[in-house]
# Entry
Amino acid sequence: MDIGSVRFSQLFGSFPTPIAIVTATDGNGRPFGFTSNAVCAVSAASSTLLVSVGKESRTLPAIVKSQAFAVNFLSSSGRDASQVFASKATDKFAHVEWRPSALAEGAPLLTEIALGFAECRVEKVIEVSDHRLVIGRVEGFELFAREPLLYRRGDYGVWSPLNEFSTL
# Structure
């Protein structure tokens, strides 16, 4: 029995997820990107992750052509950019600073608003319904001392631990 897309979205929207902006460049160095909360680790042994990309995404052809992409995990200062990259705006990079990745064919790295980024090479693309699952091998990454941006039930928040971790 199919539960339907609305109920499916209600289920997964109930859990806080990190927000990322996935970026790539086309053969002419033109940047593309979209907001995603569908990024997950695949294997630490092979340093791979998975990104779900809508087959109608304008970024998908750039990922496929370049065989590379970056996942910019957003910090709390990335809320506005998250909304722009989730839109159909034509120049999503107009109000965000970025530098080209040396390891992912120039994919934009959003160092000012990211908690961290992963520079990836495409390992495999799998077609599933109206999306493509892009499996990438992480070639490099960087982390910054910032709070992560989270998304739940249509709203944004930041990580707030219940307890501070202690060493036993």
